[in-house]
């Protein structure tokens, strides 16, 4: 599109101040800073501007005249799950082969769109975005990174002038984050403008392609009090002191396969109590499948040499016994989780395991952590009415407080600012150093890992690429 286009802000508020600004729209625009709610609000206002429905953001030409654009808003995975919840979609269904035929496949949706919009170079687009291997997968079985590539393809087929994508690079590994940025900046993908939000300030994107909505990405200042002495005392009285390590997880040549696709190959790995591990790998490397063998939602674990807490999985321990010993949080769990309880009620219920007597912390410790994360005022609010970041923090508090021998955190920080990430990591480091719990922490972002994690497992194409033990 040859005509220059601009975004004009008239009265868009950030942190109590108004922006009156006009910026040129180029091939890509990354919106960061502010809160997740503010970034989402910006995208919605911009989407409404397509038909004159926004008084705060307008698309204009060089003369300040309104311009009409074909604007698309990409559907994120969470909204898909909510939209189709009546079909009985459930957490970690993608690891259950019995449900492989439920719902539309990537091919169903992509080819239907192609029949309607007749996108030129369709095979080339399949190849560029590496969607060809995903065609036979039901949408419910896509990983977060695979969902993003599928979504980019689906919307590019529709030939928009502007593609809006909240958290457009979320869930992508570093290779694919760079690929998407390069493909749009170079004009290889035929969409004039991609506008997406990010909870990270992305160094890969030149400054002229960024819009910053606040200053929340400043490092934690001296105004952050850290963990108080009183809170440390409550933590120390609740968690067990370090003991002689025992083996929590052992995999002795694990192989997982779906049809002809080998997802994990000859995995030999051991985790002892008191150890903390980074788990890394590209999209599709097998990280989520590996964790599903431990947490109990993958039926193939029972036919594999997987040993948990000293016993082979399936040798007599009930699923509830295993879950009582594991605290688990993932972005998938967060997307599926729903409750009519208050924030306080969710913390209380999620610390318990059904059919198992649970050791519960003192209420003072729960309130102490709520104060530490500055969410005390939200505890009486219905969980469904809380903003996403508060909901995420509520579930993470329950994860930290559940009496367990192993904590698993799979991409826990999406949407959090640096201050909140620093507070979570400081707490995790203190808990791990003063207890006998083991920690498995998965992220595509190296800056998200707590500093005290020394052990590392890296997967590549389902195989162990690297093991580093401190």
CATH superfamily of the largest domain: P-loop containing nucleotide triphosphate hydrolases
Radius of gyration: 23 Å
Largest sheet: 6 strands, mixed
* Strand element count: 18
Instruction: Enter the CATH topology name of the largest domain.
Output: Rossmann fold
Give a written overview of the molecule.
This protein is of the alpha/beta class and 470 residues long. The chain has two domains: 207 residues, P-loop containing nucleotide triphosphate hydrolases (Rossmann fold), CATH 3.40.50; 240 residues, Rossmann fold (3-Layer(aba) Sandwich). The chain is built from 14 helices and 18 strands. A hairpin with a 2-residue loop joins β12 and β13. It is globular, with a radius of gyration of 23 Å. The chain starts with 5 loop residues before the first strand and ends with a strand.
Short structural summary:
This protein has 470 residues and is of the alpha/beta class.
Question: Layout of SSEs?
Answer:
Layout: E1 6-14, E2 17-24, E3 28-32, H1 36-48, E4 57-60, E5 71-73, H2 77-83, H3 106-117, H4 122-128, H5 144-157, E6 162-165, H6 174-185, E7 193-197, E8 210-212, H7 229-238, E9 247-258, E10 261-272, E11 276-281, H8 287-295, E12 306-308, E13 311-312, H9 319-324, E14 326-330, H10 331-336, H11 343-350, H12 363-372, H13 388-401, E15 406-410, H14 418-433, E16 438-442, E17 455-460, E18 463-468
């Amino acid at each position: 599109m040859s005509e220059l286009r601009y975004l004009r802000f008239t009265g868009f508020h950030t942190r109590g101040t108004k922006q009156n600004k006009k910026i040129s729209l180029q091939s890509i625009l990354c919106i960061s800073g502010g809160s997740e709610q503010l970034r989402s609000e910006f995208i919605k206002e911009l989407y409404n501007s397509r038909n004159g429905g926004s008084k705060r953001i307008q698309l204009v030409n060089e003369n300040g005249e309104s311009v009409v654009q074909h604007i698309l808003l990409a559907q994120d995975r969470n909204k898909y799950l909510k939209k189709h919840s009546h079909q009985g979609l459930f957490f970690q269904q993608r690891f259950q082969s019995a449900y492989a035929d439920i719902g539309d496949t990537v091919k169903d949706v992509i080819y239907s769109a192609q029949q309607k919009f007749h996108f030129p170079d369709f095979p080339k687009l399949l190849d560029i975005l590496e969607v060809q291997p995903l065609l036979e997968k039901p949408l419910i079985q896509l990983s977060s990174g695979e969902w993003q590539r599928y979504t980019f393809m689906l919307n590019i087929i529709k030939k928009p002038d502007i593609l809006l994508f909240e958290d457009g690079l979320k869930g992508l590994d570093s290779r694919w984050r760079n690929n998407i940025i390069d493909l749009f900046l170079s004009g290889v993908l035929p969409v004039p403008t991609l506008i997406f939000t990010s909870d990270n300030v992305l160094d890969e994107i030149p400054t002229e392609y960024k819009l910053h909505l606040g200053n929340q990405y400043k490092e934690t200042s001296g105004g952050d009090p850290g963990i108080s002495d009183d809170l440390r005392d409550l933590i120390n009285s609740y968690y067990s002191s370090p003991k002689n390590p025992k083996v929590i997880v052992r995999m002795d040549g694990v192989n997982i396969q779906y049809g002809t696709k080998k997802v994990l190959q000859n995995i030999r790995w051991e985790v002892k109590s008191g150890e903390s591990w980074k788990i890394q790998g590209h999209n599709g490397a097998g990280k989520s499948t590996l964790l599903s063998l431990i947490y109990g939602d993958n039926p193939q674990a029972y036919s594999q040499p997987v040993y948990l807490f000293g016993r082979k999985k399936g040798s007599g321990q009930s699923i509830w016994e295993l879950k009582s010993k594991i605290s688990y949080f993932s972005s998938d769990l967060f997307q599926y989780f729903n409750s009519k309880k208050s924030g306080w009620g969710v913390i209380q219920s999620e610390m318990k395991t059904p059919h198992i007597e649970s050791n519960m912390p003192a209420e003072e410790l729960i309130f102490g952590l709520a104060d530490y994360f500055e969410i005390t005022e939200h505890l009486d609010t219905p969980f469904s009415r809380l903003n996403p970041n508060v909901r995420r923090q509520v579930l993470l508090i329950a994860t930290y407080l559940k009496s367990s021998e192993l904590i698993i955190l799979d991409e826990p920080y999406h949407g959090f600012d640096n201050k909140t990430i620093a507070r979570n990591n400081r707490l995790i480091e203190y808990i791990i150093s003063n207890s006998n719990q083991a920690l498995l922490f998965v992220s595509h972002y190296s800056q998200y890992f707590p500093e005290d994690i020394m052990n590392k497992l890296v997967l590549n194409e389902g195989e162990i690429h690297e093991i580093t033990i401190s």
